[in-house]
């Protein structure tokens, strides 16, 4: 097994990974910019991976929960968009940050935004994904044609995104 990145109590396999959240570029940008945990190339796909220990239940109609759900969705959308922009600014040379030596960005890829929620009920994932899809700016969807996944640890393990010890 290669490198491991632990985020939100989950041990992610970090082969061909750029830990964008720990990058000099992200750390230098300061307030107002958000980042996913890391970017990973796997099976010809560019994965922008965010991990959460919890997420508001999309089926709970209480006012506080609805507010937390909307806020969580907005945060995740910003993280995906800001991270995509940071990644591309490095790739095209606008930002001076270099990718780490063990990360090889692909020339041609499909883009996937992945939210992994620790101990989340699988039945809630679909509603979170639908809301992310509807709230992600339409220009991002039209231009980049991303796939959005909201999964729990069990699915992340089956997809070989996390190490067995974290499961």
Q: Main traits of this protein?
A:
alpha/beta; globular; two-stranded antiparallel sheet; 7 strands; single chain; five-stranded mixed β-sheet; 167 residues; 22% strand
3D architecture notes:
The chain has helices at residues 24-29, 63-91, 122-135, 138-144, 153-158; strands at residues 4-7, 10-13, 17-18, 38-42, 45-52, 110-117, 147-152. It is an alpha/beta fold and 167 residues long. It has one domain (4-166). The chain has a 5-stranded mixed sheet. Strands 1-2 form a two-stranded antiparallel sheet. The longest helix is centred in the middle third of the chain and has 29 residues, at 63-91. It is globular, with a radius of gyration of 16 Å.
SSE layout:
Layout: E1 4-7, E2 10-13, E3 17-18, H1 24-29, E4 38-42, E5 45-52, H2 63-91, E6 110-117, H3 122-135, H4 138-144, E7 147-152, H5 153-158
Parallel strand pairs: 5-6, 6-7
Antiparallel strand pairs: 1-2, 3-4, 4-5
Helix pairs in contact: 2-3
Task: Please summarize what this structure is.
This protein has 167 residues and is α/β, with parallel strands linked by helices. The chain contains five helices and seven strands; from the N terminus they run E-E-E-H-E-E-H-E-H-H-E-H. The strands form two sheets. It has a five-stranded mixed sheet with strand order 3-4-5-6-7. The protein has a two-stranded antiparallel ribbon with strand order 1-2.
């Amino acid at each position: 097994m290669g490198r491991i990145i632990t985020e939100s109590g989950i041990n992610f396999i970090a082969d061909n990974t750029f830990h964008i959240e720990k990058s000099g570029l992200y750390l230098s940008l300061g307030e107002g910019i958000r980042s996913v945990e890391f970017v990973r190339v796997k099976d010809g796909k560019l994965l922008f991976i965010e991990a959460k220990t919890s997420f508001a239940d999309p089926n709970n109609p209480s006012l506080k929960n609805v507010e937390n759900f909307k806020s969580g969705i907005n945060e995740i959308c910003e993280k995906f968009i800001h991270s995509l922009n940071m990644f591309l600014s490095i790739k095209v040379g606008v930002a001076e940050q270099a990718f780490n030596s063990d990360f090889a960005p692909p020339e041609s890829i499909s883009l996937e935004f992945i939210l992994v929620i620790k101990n989340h009920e699988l039945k809630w994932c679909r509603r979170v994904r639908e809301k992310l899809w509807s709230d992600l700016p339409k220009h991002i969807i039209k231009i980049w044609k991303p796939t959005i996944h909201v999964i729990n640890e069990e699915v992340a393990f089956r997809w070989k995104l996390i190490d067995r010890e974290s499961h």
